[in-house]
Design brief:
CATH architecture of the largest domain: Up-down Bundle
Structural class: alpha+beta
CATH class of the largest domain: Mainly Alpha
InterPro entries: Acyl-CoA_DH_CS, Acyl-CoA_Oxase/DH_mid-dom, Acyl-CoA_Oxase/DH_mid-dom_sf, AcylCo_DH-like_C, AcylCo_DH/oxidase_C, AcylCoA_DH/ox_N, AcylCoA_DH/ox_N_sf, AcylCoA_DH/oxidase_NM_dom_sf
Radius of gyration: 21 Å
Domain Acyl-CoA oxidase/dehydrogenase middle: 135-230
CATH superfamily of the largest domain: Butyryl-CoA Dehydrogenase, subunit A, domain 3
Number of strands: 9
Keywords: FAD, Flavoprotein, Oxidoreductase, Transit peptide
Distance between the termini: 38 Å
Enzyme class: oxidoreductase
CATH topology of the largest domain: Butyryl-CoA Dehydrogenase, subunit A, domain 3
Domain Acyl-CoA dehydrogenase/oxidase N-terminal: 20-131
Length: 401
């Protein structure tokens, strides 16, 4: 992208005027990290299916890991600051915003929200620095949209829990030090409920295998996980989580980050299209002088700005403690859907060159197909909103936040 294009996209609507100095500082730090540490290597990493693990400690040193959490070595930043960091990281690649989401919004948030003080003290400071990596195991091979039907089980055996089952599409699992695994747990009194377990990944019976053949999120890691007779001490359970409200509270943290992050990918595509429109000449003029091209650019810009303003509104609601799951669904559905549309339009402006790695558009487009699916598909969020509008659930209410 050109510097001029980035400046124009950022300033036409003057978003900075709506941010605090601290929020702008977080955004600038994340933009510098994305520009200096991710962008120079991301095309090669995507092509070679390489996750650049050495950046994890740098993300921790920058304060990005679990940055919205208070204490335990976390930055305690506001929701809007966290969203802006997600936007900037995803403007480089969805895989790196996904890393920050899995680490901070899923694994760390699960321990922070539902863990014992001992669990928090043991894991969160090391996860905040990137010394320890976490993953979050909810989705199973048969699908992710109906977690109430999970088949992974946990049973009490004396002073131990024994876990058996399988999870799929679990980000970071093969490099993680700790996994938060959700299972249908049967206690010694015969009662059953969905519970979360803190599982050190070196525990016997825990196996994580990276999924190969991906055409999306290639610079990121997603895994199949098997649990075969995994024995854990009785205090491995997250004491504050019982039922699906536990994992859903973490999923909503990750969905909120996506609302912002997808707009980062959209901005990157818009910047690429704008830069090309100003420099590529056809019939003796830059293509940006043509009405059809300007119309596309204007429509892309409008949807980008609407998406960022929606994200900002949701961030302010979150900071007030009034953000609802339905409102998050509005944001996740809109941001990813519009980011994909912007990517498609950008590719058309770039013409044939748009399918090459000379521009980031096809990479963003491919990644956004994954973002569209995880943390709730378009259809699931449509049904959440349909329930909100009609008062009638068109799905099993136990399975959707």
């Amino acid at each position: 992208m050109s510097t001029d294009s980035a400046l124009i996209v950022d300033t036409v609507f003057d978003l900075d005027a709506l941010l605090t100095e601290e929020e702008r500082g977080w955004q600038q730090k994340a933009r510098a990290f994305a520009t200096e540490r991710i962008l120079p290597v991301i095309e090669d990493d995507f092509e070679n299916k390489h996750f650049r693990r050495e950046l994890v400690a740098e993300l921790g040193a920058a304060g990005f890991l679990g940055m919205h959490l208070q204490g335990y070595g976390c930055a305690g930043a506001g929701a809007v600051a966290y969203g802006l960091v997600c936007l900037e990281l995803e403007s480089a690649d969805s895989g790196w915003r996904t890393f920050v989401s899995v680490q901070g919004s899923l694994a760390m948030s699960a321990i922070y929200k539902h863990g014992s003080e001992e669990q928090k003290q043991h894991w969160l400071p090391r996860m905040a620095t990137g010394e320890a990596i976490g993953c979050f195991g909810l989705t199973e091979p048969s699908g992710g949209s109906d977690p109430a039907a999970m088949t992974t089980t946990a049973r009490r055996d004396g002073e131990e829990w024994v876990l058996d089952g399988a999870k799929r599409w679990i980000g970071l699992a093969s490099i993680a030090d700790v996994a938060v695994i959700w299972a249908k747990a049967t206690d010694s009194d015969g009662s059953t409920a969905v519970r979360g377990f803190v599982v050190p990944t070196d525990t016997d019976g825990f196996t994580a295998t990276p999924i190969d053949g991906k055409l999306s999120m290639r610079a990121s890691i997603q895994c199949d996980v098997t649990l075969e007779g995994v024995r854990l001490p009785v205090d491995a359970v997250l004491p504050g989580a019982r039922g699906l409200s536990g994992p859903f509270s973490c999923l909503n943290e990750a969905r909120y980050g996506i609302v912002w992050g997808a707009m980062g990918a959209a901005r990157s595509c818009l910047e690429a299209a704008l830069g090309r429109a100003r420099t590529r000449e056809v019939f003796g003029e830059p293509i940006g002088a043509r009405q059809l091209v300007q119309g596309k650019l204007a429509d892309m810009f409008v949807e980008y700005e609407k998406g960022v303003l929606l994200a900002l509104h949701l961030g302010r609601l979150k900071e007030r403690g009034t953000l609802t799951p339905a409102q998050i669904s509005v944001g996740k559905l809109n941001s990813v859907r519009e980011a994909l549309h912007i990517a498609h339009e950008a590719r058309s402006i770039l013409a044939g060159d748009g399918i090459t790695s000379a521009f980031p558009v096809m990479r963003h487009m491919a990644n956004l197909e994954s973002v569209r699916t995880y943390e709730g598909t378009d259809e699931i969020h449509q049904l959440v909103l349909g329930r909100e509008l009609t008062g009638i659930a068109a799905f099993s209410s136990a399975s959707v936040a």
